[in-house]
Write a structure and sequence with these properties.
Blueprint: H1 2-23, H2 27-34, H3 38-46, H4 53-63, H5 92-102, H6 106-137
């Protein structure tokens, strides 16, 4: 049983290192994005522990990779899980927004999402008014 746990830690260590390399993130970057200590990420990288529970779910949500990916052996690859080609590349502003968002308390995150939704609706309403005004002047 101990050998299996060590193998699991080694595998997750490989995957965390792969993730850091492919995304060009430092251990500190990943820790901040996940809201965990740098020491936790360092232990994952070294293979002395592996992400579990909420932290594993956060990793999955952050990366868009399924939780089981972090425990797949290095020789197990599928085209659907190519880490080097995430669905959408974020620009620097989008990454900064995510970094700031991840640092907020959960309740405040919900509040910010609502604010953004309201702002988009406000712009849509304003655009509709401007279009209607333009059509009246024709």
């Amino acid at each position: 049983m101990l050998a299996m746990k060590d193998t699991t830690k080694e595998t997750s260590s490989f995957r965390i290192n792969q993730l850091l390399h492919e995304r060009r993130w430092s251990q500190t970057d990943l820790a901040k994005k996940l809201g965990v200590s740098s020491q936790a990420v360092q232990q994952w990288v070294k293979g002395s522990s592996s992400p579990r529970g909420k932290n594993l779910a956060k990793l999955s949500n952050l990366t868009g990779l399924p939780e089981h990916w972090f425990f797949m052996a290095a020789d197990e690859t599928t085209e659907a899980l190519q880490i080097s080609s995430p669905g959408k590349i974020l620009d620097a502003r989008q990454e900064r927004l995510i970094e700031l968002f991840e640092q907020m308390p959960e309740a405040e995150k919900d509040h910010m999402v609502r604010l953004f939704e309201e702002k988009v609706k406000e712009y849509e309403r304003l655009l509709s008014e401007l279009i209607a005004l333009k059509n009246k002047t024709k």
